[in-house]
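Possible race condition, two jobs.
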Amino acid sequence: YAMFLSLIFLIVLIAAVVGFVFRHEIKTNFESNLNLALRDYNVTADRHSEAVDTIQRTLHCCGVQNYSDWERTEYFTQRGIPRSCCKSQDDCSEEDLKDLTKAKPKVFVDGCFFLVTSTMESKMSIVAGISFGIACFQLIGIILACCLSQYITNNQYEMV
């Protein structure tokens, strides 16, 4: 049991170190994937389009850097900016969403990349604290499992 806990502890520790070392690559990869999701965005319910809509609705953002990123997509030429960018669903018409100047006061203008990364960075202290707490419990479990094993080994010939 102690070996199993030690293995899990090492895996989590390695994952944390790799995540910290490659955090800039993770950001770059996320930005390129978000750009790809915008480029391939469509009205059919695929996972990437749903993810973009969820991010835009939840964080009140639009596009990668700003709302004008949608202008370079095929979706914009057909339908304009998606409804998930609208501040109020009642106030957004299709005509407004097809024109960037008309859409600006009615949609979120901030880009999602900065908001997602800043939200993640602001929550990192909470994640680090929880991870440290779990690591402490794992270390206590490893120590207690070793103590129990030692106790059983020392008392194996004792009569009960």
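Job #2 (started ~2 s after job #1):
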Amino acid sequence: MASGGLQLLGFVLAFLGWIGIIISTAMPQWKMASYAGDNIVTAQALYEGLWMSCAMQSTGQIQCKVYDSLLKLESSLQATRALMVASILLGLVAVFVAVTGMKCMKCMEDDQVKKMRMAVFGGVIFIISGLAALVATSWYGNRVARAFYDPFTPVNTRFEFGSALFIGWAAASLAILGGSFLCCSCPRRETSYPPTRGYPKNASSTGKDYV
């Protein structure tokens, strides 16, 4: 029962992490314009994401523009996109594999060892998915931080971390943690002992042998 609860907890955490990775990928707030300089502009807020850039006016109106061409984007941004999409696809595969191996499901009930191995395999895929998202968000965040502290970057073009980065970091951590819990449900190897040989029972003698 304890392993079943740990398995369910791991799946829930990993699934929530996978949903968070999807939300982080779709959000345009990967980096937001910084107004730390002398010229503070409050008329609008600028955001940039993996797929579009947005500007929010002081009235609350948001205007977004999708990036025109994939070939015009920076190679680092293209790599971040690829890692996040790969993380989402791996998470989708991990969901189906882990569900098959869950104890509460009716699939593969005749072979519990294979069923538990499917849950462990799903956990491993969740960990890989979380690592891909963690690498993508950390890489993007490192680029934002380096550009912010670069003295050659104009003050009015500096950006800070957006909310999508924080969501991505939290989601990747949940996916890795949940996948680790699923891996803890690995079936233990039972020591096999040779079958004991039973001694033949002596036939009960009646005391008289008839010819």
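The helical segments are 2-26, 75-101, 112-149, 163-183.
Logs attached separately.
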